Amino acid sequence: MTEIIVSAKTKLADIIMQDKRALVLFPRFGIELGVGNRSVKQECINKGIDTDFFLLMVNVFLNKNYFPGGKLKKLDVDMLLRYLENSHQYYLEEKIPYLEQLIEEFKKRVDHPATKQLERFFMQYITEVKEHLAYEDQTAFPYVAALSEQVKSSKADISDIDYHIGVFEERHDNIEEKLSDLKALLIQHFPPHNDRYIRIRLLNELMDFEEDLINHARIEDKVLIPIVEQLEKKIG
Ligand SMILES: [Fe+2]
Q1: How far is the CA of 141 from the centre of ligand 1 (A)?
Q2: Any idea where the domains of the chain sit in the sequence?
Q3: Looking at the DSSP assignment, which residues form a beta bridge with residue 39?
Q4: N or C: where does the chain have the smaller number of CB atoms within 10 Å of the terminal CB?
Q5: What distance in angstroms lies between residue 89's CA and the mean position of ligand 1's atoms?
Q6: Ligand 1: distance of its center to the CA of 129 in Å?
Q7: Which residues surround ligand 1, an ion (CB under 5 A)?
């Protein structure tokens, strides 16, 4: 896939045509399909989205090698947190339930003892993902919000919170291992059993989800963590 660097003039339709990952990204900003010929700038004005913020998110999400550098200084931390929380909500309320439905359908259609193991691997994977999201939602993000508040107003006091963003970095390990087990089962070990289409669909969706999570984690690593480190230095 050729990487596309998005600018304010880029047409939304061109971004989607070149990179289908934009399909999951745009709704997080309230941008729905039916984009006509509108450019990023036009749509951001229409929807009241901060254009610089949108460009930063899109470019980090779509490009592995994009370095936001100086652009981070101007970024609004609360906006970033809202975006990250929205993404988590999408995973929890839409994507994961959809994957669960697919597993159910697979179990119904494929009458084979190995479906038990498939379900077990799947549950382990989903539990891992949910724990990870819950940790960020309940511990890391509130900390960042309080930190940003303190820097802005010097009122909120976080001195009694025993936490720093380095912990987040360490914990931001991968949930990839559990998914590898699941993929290996579906690709290598599960015997063929009248399941071709549903198995391909399930694998496709799992791989899409995997990629989405990887890109999402890149925003946390390359945007959230550097910003928070700057804020932490400010309150020293
Ligand atoms: Fe996250």
Answers
A1: 9
A2: 12-66, 72-235
A3: 11
A4: C
A5: 10
A6: 10
A7: 136
